[in-house]
Amino acid sequence: MFEYTLLYFFCNRLIRQNIYFNPGMRESEAYRARIKLSHKKLLDQRFPMLPDVGMDFTWTGYICLSQNGSPGFGQIAPNVYTSVCQNAVGVTKGTIGGLLAADMACNQDNELIADMQSLGTPNSVPPRPFLDLGVRAKFAWEIWKARAEA
């Protein structure tokens, strides 16, 4: 059981694909079913020696991206701190950002706060429909560059 759990943990973290622009933030059951099949296909491709290993769970979700790659971090009002927009690196940036925001809120000295602040702040994005066109073009380029992985 431990080996299976460990494999599942690694597969859950390694299989990441298909990014697209969805300002409506809603998905159908049919879409989720297609993603589940895609995840299983990718698992089978990456671990062909384990054809009988299934997936109990799969998920799809939303990520926050800024055009310049900067997070939304810091104090935004009296006694209000934020750590948002991890630019698809949520596990690492989100974890450390949350810890550092808590340190700031508690007036705890932490030298990494300056490092996080040095990443800058998200820049403004153009209005729609220019935003939509730009995002779709950027995602198409990124998917094309990673085509061997998907």
Strand content: 5-15%
The helix/strand order is HHEEHHH
Number of helices: 5
Strand order of the largest sheet: 1-2
How would you sum up the major sheet? 2 strands, antiparallel
Measured on Cα atoms, how large is the radius of gyration?
Answer: 19 Å
Structural class: mainly alpha
Give the overall form: globular
Count of individual beta strands: 2
Mean residue pLDDT: 81
**Percent range of helical residues:** 40-55%
- Ranges with pLDDT <50 over ≥5 residues? 1-13
Termini Cα gap = 29 Å
Structural summary, described in words:
This protein is mainly alpha-helical. Among the domains are: 2-46, no CATH class; 72-117, no CATH class. Helix content is 46%, strand content 7%. It contains 5 helices and 2 strands. The protein has helices at residues 2-14, 29-46, 90-105, 112-117, 130-145; strands spanning 72-77, 80-84. It has a two-stranded antiparallel sheet with strand order 1-2. A hairpin with a 2-residue loop joins strand 1 (72-77) and strand 2. The radius of gyration is 19 Å and the shape is globular. The protein starts with a helix and ends in a 5-residue tail after the last helix.
Features:
150 residues, mainly alpha, two-stranded antiparallel sheet, 46% helix, globular, disordered N terminus
Topology:
Layout: H1 2-14, H2 29-46, E1 72-77, E2 80-84, H3 90-105, H4 112-117, H5 130-145
Antiparallel strand pairs: 1-2
Outline:
This protein has helices at residues 2-14, 29-46, 90-105, 112-117, 130-145; strands spanning 72-77, 80-84. Helices cover 46% and strands 7% of the residues.
